[in-house]
Design a protein that fits this description.
- By secondary structure, the protein is mainly β.
- It has 2 domains: 217 residues, no CATH class; 210 residues, no CATH class.
- Strands 1, 4, 5, 6, 7, 8, 9, 10, 11, 12 and 13 form an 11-stranded mixed beta sheet that branches. Strands 14, 15, 17, 18, 19, 20, 24, 25, 26 and 27 form a 10-stranded mixed beta sheet that branches. A 4-stranded antiparallel beta sheet has the order 16-21-23-22.
- The radius of gyration is 26 Å and the shape is globular.
């Protein structure tokens, strides 16, 4: 093979990658891929050289996502760079992962072998996790801006994100024009991937409608009963806090506020069909407007950005005492002192399903049992068709993964994205050199591995 051919990289536009068949799934034409790119629909791009895959792009501008996988010589994906668009024309490297396989025969992403994950915040602070079957190491690093930011390149300019070094090639590379696909998919799979989306709300309305039935994967059916009215939440400032009542010192109000006033708090109730006893608390609502909810969005604290959440992740309030509560931010300090007094004089469970009022400010908190107990729980904000806030709902996630059964009324509310897709904001050049970033990452990984190995040696463990 000539040196010139060594640098030729073939492009295949497709639905994705089939690791079993080691082939592109359902190739599409370049024109189709370009149309999808312009309309913010997902597609994939496979780069191959010398008869084997080198890189796989997964593009979904509708969710601000650009994923990049690199392959090893055994056609296994061994590196992943996950970018998110946080501002026009610029992509942020949110997550970097690398797998170092224990043997040449290992399949993709095995349980054994080393796995390195770096999760990077927009300010450059990054958490590093190195793990194998024997445990894990957690460290922190600061990532320079030139290694966490890249321009959003023009369609087809894939070398803005990868260079010859990253593709395992020497010298300059040339992208060969994509060939027209042969009719029919390369395998039986269709759309084998999706952008890593955060947790979405489910069944929120049904949790407060008596008679709704939700089937769990364990063969049980939850019957929603009449919600209980827990009282009126006094919100003199309209700044809402959701927290464990015994963690008020660190509680912060959500960024979305409502008009000051008194609002009903409803505690959803349920029982498992075939039993007489009540079930867990599935959700709690602060009802702001008695209007239908047209859409739901996550309730966020200052500094939180839902675009940085991974698949199934959410921002939630922590629970350590088996209880949650709602209150106005203005009553945090006084109510915190009252809770401490209650904890000293009585059993903390006396606060359950009750109201605690601060005599000086008139603010109150309404506490409730937090589903299955300690953990982290999301709060969703409902909006009507005009965008007005209808409710805050603390979701205990007990029935999140269930399927609705008759006579449950299907929800018509949609998930409200916090960002809109942008496709006409390309830049001509990257903000950084992709090869330099790859080299920097390799140096960091080797440093973490060496440090972990030394720690294990000093602790008396065998190091392989």
């Amino acid at each position: 093979m000539t040196t010139e051919n060594m640098g030729t990289v073939d492009i295949t536009y497709c639905e994705g990658w089939d690791p079993q068949a080691r082939a592109a799934v359902a190739p599409i034409s370049e024109a189709q891929a370009r149309d999808r790119d312009a309309s913010a629909e997902q597609y994939a791009v496979l780069l191959a050289a010398q008869g084997r895959p080198r890189a796989l792009f997964q593009v979904d501008w509708g969710h601000g996502h650009l994923g990049l996988f690199l392959f090893d010589e055994y056609e296994r994906r061994n590196k992943e760079l996950e970018y998110r668009q946080l501002e026009p024309g610029r992509l942020h490297l949110m997550r970097y992962q690398e797998w170092r396989y224990a043997s040449d025969a290992d399949k993709e992403f095995p349980e054994r072998g080393l796995r390195f994950t770096m999760t990077i915040a927009p300010d450059g602070r990054a958490r590093q996790v190195l793990s194998d079957v024997n445990g894990s190491s957690h460290t922190w690093e600061s990532v320079p801006v030139e290694h966490r930011t890249v321009a959003k390149a023009e369609f087809g300019a894939w070398t803005a994100y990868v260079d010859a070094q990253m593709l395992g090639l020497s010298g300059p590379i040339t992208l060969a024009p994509a060939e027209e696909p042969v009719k029919g998919p390369a395998s039986g799979m269709m759309s084998p991937w999706s952008a890593p989306l955060p947790l979405r709300p489910r069944h929120l309305e049904a949790l407060f409608v008596p008679g709704s039935r939700l089937a769990s994967g364990e063969g049980r059916v939850a019957l929603i009963t009449e919600p209980s009215h827990a009282g009126w939440l006094h919100l003199p400032t309209g700044s809402v806090i959701a927290t464990d009542p015994f963690l008020l010192d660190d509680a912060v109000p959500f960024t979305i506020t409502v008009a000051p006033g008194d609002y009903a708090v409803l505690i959803a109730s349920m029982r498992w069909e075939g039993t007489d006893g009540e079930g867990e608390t599935p959700a709690v609502m602060v009802r702001i407007l008695d209007k239908p909810t047209a859409g739901w969005e996550p309730a966020l604290l200052p500094g939180q950005d839902a675009r940085l959440l991974g698949a199934g992740e959410f921002f939630g309030f922590g629970v350590d005492a088996g209880m949650g509560c709602f209150l106005d931010a203005s009553g945090r300090e006084e109510l915190g002192r009252l809770v401490e007094e209650l904890e000293d004089e009585y059993n903390e469970m006396d606060l359950l399903d009750s109201e605690l009022r601060a005599p000086e400010t008139g603010t109150n908190l309404i506490a409730y049992q937090s589903g299955l107990g300690d953990g982290s729980y999301p709060v969703w904000i409902g909006r009507d068709a005009d965008g007005e806030v209808t409710a805050f709902v603390a979701d205990m996630l007990i029935l999140h993964d269930t399927d609705s059964l008759p006579p449950t009324v299907p929800s018509t509310a949609v998930y409200l994205p916090l960002t809109t897709s942008v496709t006409d904001d390309r830049r001509e050049a990257p903000f950084t050199d992709p090869g330099a970033t790859a080299t920097w990452m390799t140096t960091r990984i080797n440093h973490v591995i060496d440090g972990w190995a030394e720690h294990r040696r000093s602790s008396g463990f065998d190091v392989v």
